[in-house]
Specification:
Distance between the termini: 55 Å
Strand order of the largest sheet: 1-5-3-4-2
CATH topology of the largest domain: Conserved hypothetical protein from pyrococcus furiosus pfu- 392566-001, ParB domain
Largest sheet: 5 strands, mixed
CATH superfamily of the largest domain: Conserved hypothetical protein from pyrococcus furiosus pfu- 392566-001, ParB domain
Order of helices and strands: HHEEHEEHEHHHHHHHHHEEH
Helix content: 40-55%
Structural class: alpha/beta
Number of domains: 2
Number of helices: 14
Shape: elongated
């Protein structure tokens, strides 16, 4: 239990996430707290969050039925008795599910940029965005408002490197993006995949991650092994047809494969580095 005054605690919280929600909306922009009909509110087109879990919304709707909306929505006036949501879309959607006719709102005047910043910061504070939604929001801030990565970092309280790493996820193949969104792989897995510039190798590694349940550390080891043959080519050149076959075997098995081919035969060396990798290779080769 902290003994710091509430005002000091709020100030420290704002420093953690850039300028914070209060700093983005000047106090004089507030035009009051009131209740408005829920059908007078339209969603925020700047909302970076695209996926809302149905079960979580229904749980929140049940809570709203029993206790009401504890924290008001933040909206801006856009016409005669019409409002646009700025902050609180999850509460707004849950209120509609709960059959609530009127909701408490704080009406504020903000620009399009402030609207996007507010929605982004609220979701980051609540850890509601998946990494791809977060990356897309950063990209939109940069494109629509001519901000640099450093500027975006200051707005949301993150380093430029963190912004850069998150935005790199937008370079993933669509199948890998979907795996991140559906939480089949983590952001750490996705970053490791980005070290592979060959799309086919990325897809082979993704399949291996999901099939064998690889950890992020195991994925990083896998990526290093997949990259190793390419880096070693200058040390000992192999005929192009042998290298092509090795590449196909690497992509199929998701591990380092060496082909030693001679006039009367040869051998294939398949490497593994853990019991779980051996089990995965065994199952695949034996058709289990």
């Amino acid at each position: 239990m902290t003994d710091k005054p509430p005002a000091e605690r709020r100030t420290q919280g704002r420093r953690v996430l850039g300028r914070g929600l209060d700093a983005l909306i000047p106090a004089e922009a507030t035009t009051g707290l009131r209740e408005v009909a829920i059908d007078q509110i339209e969603p925020n087109p700047q909302q970076p969050r695209q996926r809302f879990e149905r079960g979580a919304l229904e749980d929140l709707a049940q809570s709203i039925r029993e206790h009401g909306i504890v924290q008001p929505l933040v909206v801006s006036a856009i016409g005669d008795e019409r409002y646009r949501l700025i902050v609180g879309e999850r509460r707004w959607q849950a209120s509609k599910l709960a059959g609530i006719e009127k909701v408490p709102v704080v009406i504020k005047e903000v620009s399009d940029r402030q609207s996007l910043e507010l929605a982004l910061i609220e979701n980051i504070q609540r850890a509601d965005l998946n990494p791809l939604e977060e990356a897309a929001a950063y990209q939109r801030l940069m494109q629509d408002f001519a901000l640099t990565q450093q500027d975006v970092g200051r707005q949301v309280g993150k380093s430029r490197v963190a912004i850069t790493n998150t935005m790199r996820l937008l370079l993933l193949p669509e199948v890998a993006k979907r795996a991140v969104i559906e939480e089949r792989i983590t952001e750490g897995h996705a970053r490791a995949l980005l070290s592979l510039t060959d799309k086919q190798m990325q897809m082979a590694a993704l399949e291996r991650i999901e099939r064998d349940g690889l950890t992020v550390r195991a994925t990083e080891d896998l990526v290093r092994r997949l990259l190793q043959p390419r880096r070693a080519r200058t040390l000992r050149e192999k005929p192009p047809d042998v290298e092509a076959v090795e590449g196909e075997l690497r992509r199929a098995l998701g591990t380092k494969v060496s082909l030693q081919h001679g006039k009367r035969g040869g051998r294939i060396v398949i490497e593994y580095y853990s019991d779980e990798e051996f089990q995965g290779l065994y199952d695949r080769l034996c058709g289990n």
